[in-house]
Specification:
carboxypeptidase; secreted; protease; 10-stranded mixed β-sheet; glycoprotein; disordered N terminus; Ser_caboxypep_ser_AS; Rossmann fold; 461 residues; alpha/beta
C-alpha cells in the first residue's frame, strides 16, 4: 500500500504505472513508423515478436495492419498461410491481400487490400518460418500440427495482452492451403479455452483451397487434369486406378516411390508439362514466391532448387536491412528471409490427419465456416473441397439454404456458391488460383466482405 506522504507520491505513481505496464504493455514498441518506399497511409501498422516459450526463446513474428477506416468498429482477422512452413508475411500480406505490394525499391498500394474491411493480423507460423525463431534449433525438429496449434493459441493470448483493445472484438480466422489444418485446429483449442476463461470472440472461419481430407483432396487432381485437357484418357485411367496421387505422395514422403507410381507420375508430368503452373492452370507466368507456398503438396513438380521466377520482389524487399529494421525483425540462425522455411522439419505424416471432422465440430458449436476455392487450382481442386463440404452437411443434417448458384462481382460472374443451414458455405472464385487474393483480388475482396458481414454473396449486379 502506497503512503500518501507527499514525498512518496512520485514513487507511488511510478510503481502504479509500472504495474499497469506489466499487465497491459503499450504496443508502441511494435509500431511501424513507416516502411521503406511506402506511400502515405492513414492507418496504423505494427509488427514484431510475441514469445510463446521463454525457456527456449520461441518467438513468433507478426505483422498487423489496422483497418483503413473506422478501425475501432471493424473486426479482427487472423490470416494464416500454409506450406506447411510458408510465410503469412511474404505470401499473405505482401503478395495476396495486404495493403502493399513490393515493386522495385518501393511499395505500391493494393487497392483490394483486405484491411479495407478488417484489422488484419498476419502470423509467421510455426517457429522457424520467416522471421519467427527459437534460440534452440531443436525447436525446428519434429514440429507437428499439435505443436503449431498450441503455439498459435499462446501467441493470440499474449498478443491480446499487448493489444487489449482488440480482446473483445469480433474475431475471424482465415487461411489457405495447409492452413486447412492450422485454422480448424487452432479454432478448436480456442473454443476449449473459452470454456475455462472467455477470451476469444470467435465469429467465423474461412478456408481457401484447404487441405481437409488427404485422399479426397489429393485424388481429385486426376479429374481436374483430365477435365481441363491436361492429360489423356489413358493417363487419367492409370492415375485413378494404377497409382493415384495420395498413394504417390505417401510413398514420396516415406522415401520409397514404387516403380509403378514413378512410371505413372512421369507420364502425368510429361503430359501436363512443366510449363503449366499447377496452382493456376491458366497462367503463362510464375507466381513469384507465392508459387513455392505449396511445394510440400506438389513434391514432384516443385523442389527447393527450382527457380520459380526470374525476379522475386517480395523476397528482395524483405531481405533489405532497412526493411527488417522498420519491421522490428531480425534473422536468427538463417542468413536470409525466405517465403518458405529452409530450417523447419515438419511431420509431413500430419497431412493425413483429416481436419474436415474438426470443421464439423466448429459448425456444431455454432461457428460459421466458409470453404472457398480458386477454380483454376489443380493442387487442391474445387471438386474435392465441394465433395467434402457437401458430405459434411449431409452428416450434420444441414439442409440447403442457398441452392447452388452464381454470384457476381461488378457485372461479371464472380463464382458459384452453395450454403447449408445458414452456417456452412462453399464458394468458388472464378478465374482464381490456389492463392485466390493474388490472382483475383477484387472477387476475393467481395467474398471476404460478404463472409465478415454474414450476408449472401451478391446474387445480382
Amino acid at each position: 500500500m502506497c503512503s500518501l506522504l507527499w514525498s512518496s507520491i512520485a514513487m507511488c505513481v511510478a510503481l502504479i504505472l509500472l504495474q499497469v505496464a506489466i499487465v497491459h504493455p503499450s504496443p508502441s514498441h511494435h509500431r511501424i513508423t513507416r516502411l521503406p518506399g511506402q506511400p502515405h497511409v492513414e492507418f496504423h501498422q505494427f509488427s514484431g515478436y510475441v514469445t510463446v516459450d521463454h525457456k527456449s526463446e520461441r518467438s513468433l513474428f507478426f505483422y498487423f495492419a489496422e483497418a483503413e477506416k473506422d478501425a475501432l468498429s471493424k473486426p479482427l482477422v487472423l490470416w494464416l498461410n500454409g506450406g506447411p512452413g510458408c510465410s503469412s508475411l511474404g505470401v499473405g500480406a505482401f503478395s495476396e491481400n495486404g495493403p502493399f505490394r513490393p515493386k522495385g525499391e518501393a511499395l505500391v498500394r493494393n487497392q483490394f487490400s483486405w484491411n479495407r474491411e478488417a484489422n488484419m493480423l498476419y502470423l509467421e507460423t510455426p517457429i522457424g518460418v520467416g522471421f519467427s525463431y527459437s534460440s534452440d534449433t531443436s525447436s525446428y525438429e519434429g514440429v507437428n500440427d499439435k505443436i503449431t496449434a498450441r503455439d498459435n493459441l499462446a501467441f493470440l493470448q499474449n498478443w491480446f495482452i499487448n493489444f487489449p483493445e482488440y480482446r473483445n472484438r469480433s474475431l475471424f480466422i482465415v487461411g489457405e492451403s495447409y492452413a486447412g489444418h492450422y485454422v480448424p485446429q487452432l479454432s478448436e483449442l480456442m473454443l476449449q479455452f473459452n470454456k475455462k476463461e472467455k477470451l476469444f470472440n470467435l465469429k467465423g472461419v474461412a478456408l481457401g483451397n484447404p487441405v481437409l481430407e488427404f485422399a479426397t483432396d489429393f485424388n481429385s487432381r486426376a479429374e481436374f487434369f483430365w477435365s481441363h485437357g491436361l492429360i489423356s484418357d489413358t493417363t487419367y485411367k492409370m492415375f485413378t486406378s494404377v497409382c493415384n496421387y495420395s498413394r504417390y505422395v505417401r510413398e514420396y514422403y516415406n522415401g520409397a516411390v514404387s516403380p509403378i507410381c514413378s512410371s505413372v507420375m512421369s507420364q502425368v508430368s510429361t503430359e501436363t508439362s512443366r510449363f503449366v503452373d499447377k496452382y493456376d492452370v491458366t497462367l503463362d507466368v510464375c507466381l513469384s514466391s507465392v508459387f513455392s507456398q505449396t511445394k510440400v503438396l506438389n513434391p514432384q513438380q516443385v523442389t527447393e532448387t527450382i527457380d520459380v521466377c526470374v525476379e522475386d520482389e517480395t523476397v528482395n524487399y524483405l531481405n533489405r536491412k532497412d526493411v527488417q529494421s522498420a519491421l522490428h525483425a531480425r534473422l536468427v540462425g538463417v542468413r536470409r528471409w525466405s517465403a518458405c522455411s529452409n530450417v523447419l522439419d515438419y511431420e509431413l505424416h500430419n497431412l493425413e490427419i483429416p481436419t474436415i471432422t474438426t470443421v464439423g465440430k466448429l459448425v456444431k458449436e455454432g461457428i460459421p465456416v466458409l470453404v472457398y476455392s480458386g477454380d483454376q487450382d489443380s493442387v487442391i481442386p474445387l471438386t474435392g473441397s465441394r465433395t467434402l463440404v457437401h458430405k459434411l452437411a449431409k452428416e450434420l443434417g444441414l439442409k440447403t439454404t442457398v441452392p447452388y448458384r452464381v454470384w457476381f462481382e461488378r457485372q461479371q460472374v464472380g463464382g458459384w456458391t452453395q450454403v447449408y443451414g445458414n452456417i456452412l458455405s462453399f464458394a468458388t472464385i472464378r478465374g482464381a488460383s490456389h492463392e485466390a487474393p493474388f490472382s483475383q483480388p477484387e472477387r476475393s475482396l467481395v467474398l471476404f466482405k460478404s463472409f465478415l458481414e454474414g450476408r449472401p454473396l451478391p446474387q445480382e449486379f
